[in-house]
Design brief:
By secondary structure, the chain is of the alpha/beta class. The chain contains eight helices and seven strands. Strands 1, 2, 3, 4, 5, 6 and 7 form a seven-stranded mixed sheet that branches. About 35% of the residues are buried. Flavin mononucleotide (FMN) binds next to strand 3. One of its GO terms (molecular function) is oxidoreductase activity.
Length: about 210
């Protein structure tokens, strides 16, 4: 099973300190997925350094090589762990910008796990809930369990090691749901290609309109 873990922050410093927190939460979740024997690919918006969306991947005739390479990495995944900070009660713009660069067919008929964090007490729950309909729109089933990390600066050290017990079991519940759906979707893709009965939109979004 291949899991792609997408980080959602491009911040390089605080306040609040220590920052950025995303790397800690990402490292923690990376271990939670690796424990299950999955192959894991971490996509970091800092490394990808995509511009604010000018042209999505699918809108190019011949896309830039770096965008093609990222599309291939995302497409190769069976499931996604989306790690988002909470900025003004919303998901991190770096995560949304990255996702918006690609057509939904890259993500669709797969599963996703939402992981949110914040420096404050709510653990990014508002961002997590705002991310749910976005992943649903991509056809990338967000599983019911979510992982929320309040005061991430206190919960995990710089390597993503938890400071207290219980975090591994908490993450495992979400990862279990993610992998269950991912396996179900993967196994069914062979017998029935989902794009045959529900093809990707090629021409215009109006292809999904109700009849007039
Ligand atoms: C622009 C901005 C908006 C923020 N909004 C929220 C918020 O709505 N809720 C919250 O709990 N924390 C908020 N924070 C604090 C973040 O939880 C904290 O800065 C965290 O470290 C962000 O993750 P990062 O370091 O990986 O970027 C905000 C931080 C920034 C920079």
């Amino acid at each position: 099973m291949r899991v792609c873990l997408v980080l959602g922050s491009t911040r390089s410093s605080g306040p609040p300190r220590p920052a950025p927190l995303g790397a800690r939460v990402g490292a923690f979740m990376e271990r939670a997925v690796a424990r299950r024997g999955c192959e894991i690919d971490v996509v970091d918006p800092v490394v990808e350094a995509l511009p604010l969306l000018e042209k999505p991947h699918f809108a190019y005739g011949r896309a830039p090589a770096a965008l093609d390479a990222l599309a291939a990495r995302l497409a190769a995944a069976d499931a996604y762990v989306m790690v988002t900070p909470e900025y003004n009660h919303a998901p991190g713009p770096a995560l949304l910008n990255l996702v918006d660069h690609f057509g939904s067919s890259i993500f669709s008929f797969k599963s996703s796990l939402i992981v949110s964090y914040s420096a404050g007490q709510w653990g990014g729950t508002r961002a997590a809930h705002a991310l749910r309909p976005i992943l649903s729109e991509l056809g990338c089933l967000p599983v019911s369990a979510m992982v929320h990390v309040p005061r991430a600066q206190e919960q995990f050290d710089a390597d993503g090691r938890p400071a207290s017990e219980g975090w591994d079991a908490y993450a495992d519940r979400g990862v279990s749901q993610l992998l269950w759906w991912a396996a179900a979707a993967k196994n069914h893709r062979g017998p029935e290609d989902p794009f045959e009965s529900s093809p990707a939109f090629r021409a215009a979004p109006s292809q999904r309109n109700a009849p007039s």
